[in-house]
Amino acid sequence: ATQIKNSNTQTAGYEITREPLVDNAFQSLPTAVQKELNSIFEKVQNPFYRDKAAMVARLEELVMQYPRAPQISNYLAASYQMTRNKKAKPRVEENYKLHPDYLFARIDYARLCLERRDLAKVKEIFKEGFDLKLIYPQLRRFHVTEFVAFNFIICIYHRLSGDWEAAKLVAQVLENVAPEHPVTAQVKRMT
After folding, report:
1. Coil vs helix vs strand at 99
2. Tens digits of per-residue pLDDT, 125-169?
3. How many CB atoms lie within 10 A of CB 66?
């Protein structure tokens, strides 16, 4: 059963938190680059940010400079998607090839596969199972954005595969863990 405590939630042997998580790849970047990426992340999420071309150009530079940092490639893919750039899908595919264990690379690539109705590929991407604890048994905490994005993809997978009961279960878990999240409302409308 899911229990909500303060800003964190316990579920299935791991904790869902709204607090920032330490990421080793991100922490290994120079402090100035970390700060710049945090600023870029806010801009990526802001639909009213106007200088998107400069942001994309800077992220392209950073991807070349720090190819082992999956977050940068992820931000670039998100920026391409936000600007409807034709490079978005190839960037998502490239990010998954370069960083197959990075959760958001898996999620984004799975989303592309779902758009193509390639359910077998989604199953391959999450070969360990459709549970974060099965995919990352060494981790005890996940950020709410990871949990919500992952379960959104899993819900769509279940819907497309015709397993409406499994999709409803995922929707219920999202409702228990992140009732206020916009994706939860979207999932509830889908199921």
Report:
1. coil
2. 999 999 999 999 999 999 999 999 999 999 999 999 999 999 999
3. 19
Residues in the chain: 191
Round to whole Å and give the CA distance between 95 and 115: 17
- Is residue 101 within 8 A of residue 127, CB to CB? The reply is no
Return the minimum-mean-pLDDT range out of 38-47, 53-62, 125-134, 180-189.
Answer: 38-47
What is the token pair recorded at 153?
A: 């993809």
Kindly list the strands in the beta sheet with 3-5, ordered across the sheet, starting from the edge strand earlier in the chain: 3-5, 8-11, 14-17, 141-143
Quick check: pTM over 0.85?
Answer: yes
Nearest in space to 13 (alpha carbons), one of 131, 145, 176: 131
Give the Cα separation of 186 and 149 in Å (integer). 12
Is residue 50 within 8 Å of 43, Cβ to Cβ?
Answer: no
Which token pair is 50? Answer: 């106007």
